[in-house]
Amino acid sequence: MDSTIIVAILGFLGTVLGSGLGVIASSKLTNFRLQKLEEKVEKHNSVIERTFKLEGQVTEIFHDIKELKSYHSKGGN
Fold it and tell me: pLDDT digit string (tens) for 60-69?
């Protein structure tokens, strides 16, 4: 076999192998970054849920305070 053909085949195999490894590495990195992003989104959603609950509790507290002020301003004990 001619040496030019052998060099071409080796070059082709090197290109295919390099491209394949690059795609695999890129895929792993993308999956890793997506996983980290999902973790951050989950933390964010947890904070939003807790904030929503706290807002409801604060609203109830303000309502109770208004009732107490009203009770005491009308001459209650």
Answer: 999 999 999 9
